[in-house]
Design a protein that fits this description.
Structural class: alpha/beta
Bound molecules: magnesium ion
CATH architecture of the largest domain: 3-Layer(aba) Sandwich
Protein name: Sucrose phosphatase-like domain-containing protein
Helix content: 25-40%
Distance between the termini: 25 Å
Organism: Candidatus Woesebacteria bacterium RIFCSPLOWO2_01_FULL_44_14
Number of strands: 15
GO molecular function: magnesium ion binding; phosphatase activity
Radius of gyration: 19 Å
CATH superfamily of the largest domain: HAD superfamily/HAD-like
Oligomer: single chain
Strand order of the largest sheet: 1-15-14-13-2-5-6-7-8
């Protein structure tokens, strides 16, 4: 691993696309969901962090030089709200770990699911709903098309058990992110998401840089031509940011802008 300060013009001479993780890299972590239900109504409150103005301005500057991809497990609706001012030219918003991409004025679905997978997803969700009801905990699901994101206060063993009962073949991964469980088909990850996007845009993977901070970003940083980590203790990669700024994404953007001057 090398510090990002050692990235050279030669390293990036073929780069066309820069791919960013969201939470902790371009936006501060921390999403809270609260649901209140009566027999007839549901009120959902979602508290998320916005894209800082400084990050927005730098990303807009960066897209004069590169195609920018935002690669996330979040829904494309959420991403559209937060990254709205970046749209539409030279930007793709990858939602639900590559199931969808919002780009060039269209929402593309890259992944389809067979009946068996759909039934499993439906059953996992309804069993988790029952579990949340019986335990009377205020846990809630993030609104998404396919991915199941179940917010809990801790890495609850019961969630693993519930999924295992419905999915003994372990076709679904159950990933605790620190604020929620992501439950998704094992074949999907942020690396396959980047592959789908590159196919769609006709960009070679060797022409990409990807930056992330966690274990769920590993497939993405390893798939990209150049990988960058903002948490070198958790995620190893070709380059690491030094932590001199509160969000690691800034260091990569600043370095790329400097090398393009
Ligand atoms: Mg991450």
């Amino acid at each position: 691993m090398k510090p990002i300060t050692e990235l050279t013009r030669d390293d990036i001479k073929d780069v066309k696309l820069v791919c960013f993780d969201v939470d902790g890299v371009t936006i501060k972590k921390g999403t809270q969901i609260k649901v209140e239900e009566t027999p007839e109504t549901q009120t959902m409150t979602i508290r998320t962090r916005l894209l800082a103005r400084e990050m927005r301005d730098k990303l807009i500057e960066l897209k004069k030089h590169y195609f920018i991809a935002i690669n996330s497990g979040r829904s494309t609706i959420y991403l559209k709200d937060v990254f709205n001012e970046l749209l539409w030219d030279n930007v793709a918003l990858i939602g639900e770990v590559g199931i969808f991409t919002l780009a060039k004025g269209e929402l593309v679905q890259h992944e389809k699911f067979d009946e068996k997978a759909l039934a499993k997803m439906r059953n996992i969700r309804s069993e988790l709903e029952k579990y949340a009801d019986t335990t009377r905990i205020s846990e809630a699901f993030e609104p998404k098309q396919f991915l199941i994101t179940f917010h809990t206060r801790f890495d609850d063993k019961n969630v693993h058990e519930i999924v295992k009962k419905i999915d003994p073949e372990s076709e679904f991964a159950v990933i605790w992110s620190g604020e929620a469980f992501d439950i998704l088909p094992r074949r999907l990850n942020k690396g396959t998401a980047l592959v789908s996007l590159c196919k769609y845009l006709d960009v070679d993977l060797s022409q990409t840089i990807a930056i992330g901070n966690g274990n769920n970003d590993r497939d993405m940083t390893e798939t990209a031509g150049i990988g960058v980590t903002t948490e070198p203790k958790v995620l190893r990669s070709d380059f690491y940011t030094t932590g001199s700024q509160h969000l690691g994404g800034f260091e990569l953007i600043d370095k790329l802008l400097e090398l393009n001057r």
